Amino acid sequence: MGRHLVFVYGTLKAGEPNHDFLQPPHDAVFIGKGATVERFPLVIASRYNIPFVLDAVGQGNRIQGEVYEVDDNTLADLDELEKHPDYYKRRPTRIELFNPSATVLECGMYFLHGFHERLLTLPRYDNYSSAGAHGLPFQFRNDHVSDPLNPYSTIDDVKNDIE
């Protein structure tokens, strides 16, 4: 089985709501904290307050997060969670570790592609926490009661119809 480096910046980080995906029985080894070498916009959007890194290199900040080494099965579970490649796309991204030698690793990172341009007008962050001062805690989808007369789609809310 292969091993893969992934960089997580949102709800998958330690202490965040989806971190269980990087805990046993999943096979994930924490490598260290770091930040993207390039700048990207990290925004919080949708009625569920989901953190998204927009695929718009050069705009925004160096995004802080965590690097994990995962096995094939854990990577497949992360891809399913992030709906790769339809919703997010995982692509190689250079991450500089916060260590004395500032090691740079190439890690898979999930980006929102084909997003509505209005997302670029939202406040941008460099380090996400669901409990942050922004006052926008992450909401699990099952925490909401759906209104069949007024259906809501997160995908429609944040993505363009045509890419």
UniProtKB/TrEMBL annotation:
GO CC entries: cytosol
Active-site residues from the entry: 82
Residues in Gamma-glutamylcyclotransferase AIG2-like domain copies: 6-124
InterPro entries the record matches: AIG2-like_dom, GGACT, GGCT-like, GGCT-like_sf
GO molecular function: gamma-glutamylaminecyclotransferase activity
One Pfam family of this chain: GGACT
Annotated family: Belongs to the gamma-glutamylcyclotransferase family.
PANTHER family xref list: GAMMA-GLUTAMYLAMINECYCLOTRANSFERASE, TROPONIN C-AKIN-1 PROTEIN
Name recorded for this polypeptide: Gamma-glutamylcyclotransferase family protein
Organism: Hypsibius exemplaris (Freshwater tardigrade)
